Amino acid sequence: MSAYKTLLVEKEGPIDWVTLNRPEALNALNPQLVDELLDYFGGLYMDHSVRIVVLRGAGRAFCAGLDLKDRSNAPGTSSAVSSSPQAGLVGQRRISEIVMRMRRAPQPILSLVHGPACGGGFALALASDIRIAGESARMNAAFIRIGLSACDIGVSYFLPRLVGVSVASELMMTGRFINAARAERVGLVSEVVPDDQLSAAAQPYLEEMLTTSPLGLRLTKECLNMSTDAGSLEAAIAMEDRNQILCAQTDDFKEGISAFLGKRAPDYKNR
To answer: pLDDT tens across 13-59, in order?
Structure first.
């Protein structure tokens, strides 16, 4: 269990189940939740005890985005209302840093999305590595509907890479919602299940990822991130070659080969 106030972290062996825990506010991002997300994701980079993160929301929403009812204007907070452009940029960068830390984290992040996932909540889902949607999921780039640009918190980076420029343009320029069924059709989510089956639906993904070696899984996420922006095929292959040579020098690789030949489950020791 965690000591956070708005974020619940439950450890299940090498898996962290992380719950946005402001159900009375549809898990909207207030300064405290922003700070706790920054702290949690910032600590993952050097934490080898955590292999996978599952991100979800308490109550009837994943995350409704920025809490517009919170009028805190202090510099360094996540407030949408600021006394100056300088203070506003500080707050903006704090929110954006969440998705940066999610991508830097070497652990795969699997998001279970139900109900509204709007604005910043949409960004959290997009910054995850795998998304499973509940039937009630409704996602949108809400920023453009309140007088801002839809390009915020990494949405303009992630969304066209996930669904293509055409669909991304439609969603971002209109702010319209995409429901779970269409999100699955366009490849935004891996599958759609009834809301009450989301945790169960995550289990096969978790079990399969845990059959991989710890180093192999971490390097796979790192290489995927870099290859997405690689300037050439040669650059991507250079990263792949490095990863394979590193993994091939480990005891876990020997164990993986032995387990495969012996037709048994591998017992990786992260060595």
So the answer is: 999 999 999 999 999 999 999 999 999 999 999 999 999 999 999 99
CB 188 within 8 A of CB 128: no
> Do 54 and 206 form a contact (C-beta atoms < 8 A)?
yes
* 233-248 helix and 214-228 helix, angle to the nearest 10 degrees: 170
Walk me through the domains of the chain, giving residue ranges and CATH numbers. 7-209 (3.90.226.10), 212-262 (1.10.12)
Largest Cα separation within the chain, whole Å, is 66
β-partners of residue 63 are 117
151-to-15, 53, 137, 252 alpha-carbon distances in Å: 32, 26, 21, 42
pTM (two decimals) = 0.89
Those residues whose C-beta lies under 8 Å from the C-beta of residue 122, and which sit 6 or more positions away, are 65, 139, 140, 141, 142, 155
The Cα 121–Cα 130 span in angstroms is: 15
| Alpha-carbon dihedral sign for residues 58, 61, 63, 68 | negative
What is the torsional sign of CA 177, 179, 182, 184?
positive
pLDDT digits 0-9 by tens, 189-213: 999 999 999 999 999 999 999 999 9
Q: Return the percentage of the chain with pLDDT > 90, whole number.
A: 68
pLDDT value at position 8?
Answer: 97
Q: Provide the pairing of β-strand 138-140 with 130-134.
A: unpaired
